[in-house]
Amino acid sequence: MSGEALRGALEQSLAGFDQRAIAAAVRRLGAGYRSGEAGAPRLDDPRSVAAYAAYRMPATYAAVRAVLAQLPELDPAILLDVGGGTGAAAWAAIDICPGLRSVTVTDRSTAALEFGRRLATQAPHEALRLARWERSDASAPIPAADLLTASYVLGELDPHARQGLIETMARSGATVVVVEPGTPEGYRRVLAAREQLLVHGHRVLAPCPHSAACPLADTTDWCHFAVRLDRSALHRRVKSAELGYEDEKFAYVATAPGGQAAAVGRVLRHPQTRKGLVRLTVCQRDEQVAPIAVRRSAASYRAARDARWGDPWPPRDAG
Description:
Elements: H1 2-14, H2 19-35, H3 46-68, E1 78-81, H4 88-96, E2 102-107, H5 110-120, H6 126-129, E3 132-135, E4 147-151, H7 159-170, E5 175-181, H8 184-199, E6 202-206, E7 225-230, H9 233-239, E8 245-257, E9 265-267, E10 272-274, E11 277-284, E12 289-295, H10 301-306
Parallel strand pairs: 1-2, 1-4, 2-3, 4-5
Antiparallel strand pairs: 5-8, 6-8, 7-8, 9-11, 10-11, 11-12
């Protein structure tokens, strides 16, 4: 699994840095992210890039991997990771899409790209070891690709640059995956990207079971999901964390020209399990979010007990 390889590569790549200095830089990054005003982190020197990689790469990898796993028909040959920094999304993509033959990561930070290039030399997949790392900003033309990813990028751009990037991605003819933090602001950015992609003829693959208006758009709720990731000893150390895991919350949309939804419905919250009863909140193909109660007597009860937040409902293999 690329996740284990990534952890090992990070351990090795960060071993040469002063761990106390990295931990201090991580604390500054964390404070910026929690304030909601971080914008684009300054990745202009090896230490700040190392801190960013230690702080964010495991979570970004986990979120993008969870998203791509919801696209069972996805089989790209060429990946372009826009604003990919140190390459976490590329590591996730190669894990879910082992048939990838070409990987390109772009970013405006030369230091981040160089760190990502060195890290990728330790990857178990040849396409990632041979990846291209190209300095570019969000306004640059997008070369041909089957899959375009932009993870945790939109929040670093001003509205004009954000719209320009999504328009360029929409016109590429590729499958587009946008991932943002699972906050109300992150959801709104994803929702705006979704609407813009639909205007350009895309259809939603996930998480939505339809390409109509989001039923949560005019409510106080927001569509987001979570993935739990194990923290390595290094990850715990630089974050001064005690728990051996963390939960990364994210919002996302995946679209393609002429595509169709990968699920009939989507579980939007942690299922509520009681004795002989499972309650699910499901976004449905009829464009509504509805509670579903599955009792022990139902044929789908076992599947409901196994369902997780973000899963398709009913399961793809049902029936």
